[in-house]
Amino acid sequence: MKNQLLSPFFLVLISCCLLAGGVEAQPLGWQYAKNIEITENSGATLTNYQLRITLNTQVYVNAGQMLASGDDIRFGADINGVTQLSYWIESGMNTASTVIWVKVPSLPANATTTIYLFYGNNAAGGASSIDGTFIGPHSSTDSVASGGAGGVGNSQRGFRFSVTEDILVKSFGKREPTGTTRYVTMFDYNSQAILRQHQVSGPAGQYYYSDLSQPIWLTQGAQYLLELFQASGDGYYFGTSSQIGQHLVYYDMRYCNSCNQNTFPTNVLSNYQYGYPDFHYYTKLTVTPEPTYSTCSAEICNGIDDNCNGMIDEGVLITYYLDMDGDGYGNPSNTTQACSLPMGYVTNNQDCNDNNAAIKPGAAEICDGVDNNCNGSTDEGLTFVTYYTDGDGDGYGTGAGQSLCADPGTGYSTQAGDCNDNNAAIKPGVAETCDGIDNNCNGSTDEGVLITYYRDMDGDGFGNPSNTTQACSLPTGYVINNQDCNDNNPLEKPGQTWYADLDNDGYGTGATLTQCLRPVGYKVAVELASTTGDCNDNNAAIKPGAAEICDGLDNNCNGQTDEPIAVGSPWSSANVGSGANGGASLACSPGNMTTFNVSAQGYSTPTGDVTHIVYQQICGNTSITVRVAALSSGGWAGITMRESLAGGSRMVALKTQLANTGIREARSATNGPK
Fold first, then answer.
1. Are 484 and 457 spatial neighbours (Cβ–Cβ below 8 Å)?
2. DSSP codes, 181-198
């Protein structure tokens, strides 16, 4: 819509917000007021001047201070609103660029005049009005009424014009002969665009006007068409006339036939008025240079940037303190900043417990471990006694103690010194018993009642006098006596019987000593094969069970010297043949030669053998020398080689009966003759 809002007035955007407190007072019912400083710049005193201001109403609406409709907006010449000023809200309500026109009664030359904006009244009705704010209304045709009735249906009739200054069109009107509802349309002449189109109803033969839903500014020097549409059967007035309003210039008649209300007419007649469309318009006072204005002022606490520095309420916010418990005193650590007292907050910060309404400055101090009166002290002015924890109820307490102004009751005592608060039998003054516990709480355990025990390292039942311990009962590894002479040997102990074994052969002679320490050459019974029986305690080789050797000694202590002994390896003894019933033993022989005593019964035959032999098995070559030392009972003795021990086996033998008698025997076949 070209040029419809243009105006020669100076434009300043009001971005600062307005609130009560920046001025002295405001009219009854209005909560907020803001001064607007206007400076006259032309050097002439102005009367009833229409001031165009641009205001950020969105910030007020968002703050809940102004109605979104703007119905609560008022202007006054004084702070009390006694003289209220006419105004018109042109556009942009609840935006950052709301356009408002205010009629200012007087602006002295080169001076600054203050007017006031009031808002914040939810019950207020709208007072915005073109009438009273601007000069008018005026008729665009001066209500021309010449000419006769007639007309063509489906046509437009009107005129082309321009304006000599900016004017504000408020309403469209018509005068026609049929009294029907008509379209009145205003076109921009250059662009042919429809600027406004409005239906007007009214009686025949009269001028009748209807307000536009959106008034429009027409710009000085621009050309426009105003047309009245006739539908089928409608009529119009026509006649020769160039009559026009005082602020308009008439050019010619413009019309079209067989068209509609949206058709831009291009047919032309001069000095004619057809159809009689009309509009009412308003003018304003114009001056150069225009007055200027400012809404920036000292910052006040209102949630708005009053001084236009981009910050809100800087330096003027009030600190309030949360009063959670409602006792009238605030929490110093829970604050908020606001312009007015929020619900649940107070202006002081003196509460020391905001969860308990009974705790606050001035309250009576009671014995409860709490700073009841918020003076920084707890239970001051009360009598205090030190109480100690007495868990076992023995009348003596433990710990550092608590200084209390009231008896805490069961579980506490005014006497300290208990060293075990879980046992009532343990406390100062009781008799000490030997139990590993400090019964009387004097810092010592079992003093005067401990028993001395001696270490029995070797477990022989006797203690070491130089290794002791004190205890209430016998510890493991200790005894009550200190008589051991060697606690590393269980055999050495008081009353021990020692047996002589001078040659250390494990056999005693029966000689004994009874003492603690081991005598040299003595052993206890468990260390000996026998405590008696040794027949020579100076020779370890002579003892019971030793092998008897041919040395003229009783080697085995059996009371005999060099007695025969059984045949041993590598020799064996055996009967050959049936009925020999012989035997053999090893006899002592001078010169340490091997000497056998051999005996047998019965007689051999040419085919059978009855003899007893001492033999060894030989493989390979060897040499054996046999000397028959003595014979008895007519027997034979000698050396033989046999195939086996079986009687009648193959054999060869040399035998003698001494006395220079000897024989040779041989058997070449088993069980054969020899």
1. no
2. -EEEEEEETTT--EEEEE
Do the beta carbons of residue 205 and residue 178 sit within 8 Å?
A: no
Say whether the peptide bond before residue 570 is cis (omega within 30 degrees of 0).
yes
**Tokens read off for 285:** 């006072």
Alpha carbon 252 to chain centroid distance?
86
Distance CA(282)–CA(166), nearest Å, equals 9
Q: How far apart are CA 376 and CA 380, in angstroms?
A: 10
Residue owning tokens 């009735």: 149
The strand ranges marked E within 588-647 are 595-599, 611-615, 637-642
Name the pTM for this structure.
0.50
d(CA 328, CA 527): 102
Longest dimension (CA), the chain: 213
Q: How far is CA 411 from CA 367, 388, 403, 420, 499, in A?
A: 19, 8, 15, 14, 72
Tell me which DSSP letter residue 1 carries: -
Q: Is residue 81 left, alpha or beta, with left meaning phi > 0 and alpha meaning psi from -120 to 50?
A: left
Q: Let me know the angle formed at the C-alpha of 319 by 315 and 325, rounded to the nearest 5 degrees.
A: 170
What end-to-end distance do the CA atoms of the chain give, in Å? 171
Helix (H) or strand (E) holding 61: helix 57-62
CA distance 303 to 196: 41
Q: Which amino acid is at 339?
A: C
Instruction: Report the C-alpha gap between 195 and 218 in whole angstroms.
Output: 10
Q: Is the dihedral of CA 209, 211, 212, 218 positive or negative?
A: positive
**What one-letter code names the amino acid at 585?**
S
> Using an 8 Å Cβ cutoff, are 239 and 212 in contact?
no
Distance set, CA 673 to CA 408, 651, 666 (Å)? 131, 11, 8
- The neighbour count for residue 403, using CB atoms within 10 Å, is 10
Which residues of the chain have a pLDDT value below 50? 1-24
Alpha carbon of residue 61 to chain centroid: 44
Placement of tokens 């002290």 in the chain: 377
Record the tokens describing residue 240, joined without a space. Answer: 């020769």
Measured between alpha carbons, how far is 215 from 218 in angstroms, rounded to an integer? Answer: 10
Please list, residue by residue across 293-328, b when 16 or more beta carbons sit within 10 angstroms of its beta carbon and e when fewer do: bebebebbbbbbbbbbeeebbeeeeeebbbbbbebe
The tens digit of pLDDT for each residue in 97-123 reads 999 999 999 999 999 999 999 999 999
Check: CB of residue 567 under 8 Å from CB of residue 573.
yes
CB 41 within 8 A of CB 290: yes
Q: SS3 string of 510-538?
A: CCEEECCCCCCCEECHHHCCECCCCCCCC
Collapsing DSSP to helix, strand or coil, 628 comes out as coil
Side-by-side strand order, sheet with 637-642? 637-642, 651-658, 661-667
Return the pLDDT at 130. 98
Residue with tokens 């005996």: 599
3-state helix, strand, coil in the chain (%, to 5): 0, 35, 65
| pLDDT value of residue 279 | 97
Query: If you search the block for the tokens 């009424």, which residue do you land on?
Result: 145
* Identity of residue 594: T
Closest CA to 130 of 162, 170, 173: 170
